[in-house]
Amino acid sequence: AGGKTDLVAQSGAMKSVVEWIGRAASSTSTVLVTGATGTGKEVVARTIHRQSAAGEEPFLGVNLAAVPPTMVESELFGHEKGAFTGADRRREGILRAAGNGTVFIDELAEMPLSLQAKLLRTLESREVRALGSDRSVHFAARLIAATHRDLKVMISEGTFREDLFYRLNVVQIALPDLKDRAEDIPILVHDLLQRHAAKQGLQAPIVTSEAMRALCAHS
Known about the structure:
Elements: H1 12-25, E1 31-34, H2 41-51, E2 59-63, H3 72-77, H4 94-97, E3 102-106, H5 113-125, E4 127-128, E5 137-138, E6 142-147, H6 151-157, H7 162-168, E7 171-174, H8 185-200, H9 209-217
Parallel strand pairs: 1-6, 1-7, 2-3, 3-6
Antiparallel strand pairs: 4-5
Helix pairs in contact: 1-2
């Protein structure tokens, strides 16, 4: 894949991720990024956006775990003035506000079932209906979603819609745990030390071989 990336990819597992990022960036398909918390799902989403033809367009993200359930619909789809108590002005919602860019939905598994159905209809029709509105409006943004949860287990439990899963899972990028990419640890250590030292105006400390071996062996 061409283009700048903040991902460290010395290991085979991460080289495969970078290859899939390049494929995703060359298309406009929806993307599902999976992996444990802290594996870099938002970094992947931003890299796909930056390397895509829409790289100069907006990148707008929302973490559903950080948004009250009652506000998720407004955050994504927008609302009209007076649509609910406290709605003193119209809000566009990030699906439309992103224009021709990218919308990143993090912690997708936190989406209520009722809104999963609305998101599915929205993706199928490529039209958004704001809360309190009686008309639908076209949107052009590409959607990238991420989760650390096993959506197939949630489907079997009835807490996530199977049809939405397949609509989002056009391209899936699964991020490996750090224990499965130990070859990347020395580069990550060096990169993080350089980055933080530069912020402090200091020279990056040297990591001894013994210290590096201990870091690489840590569970």
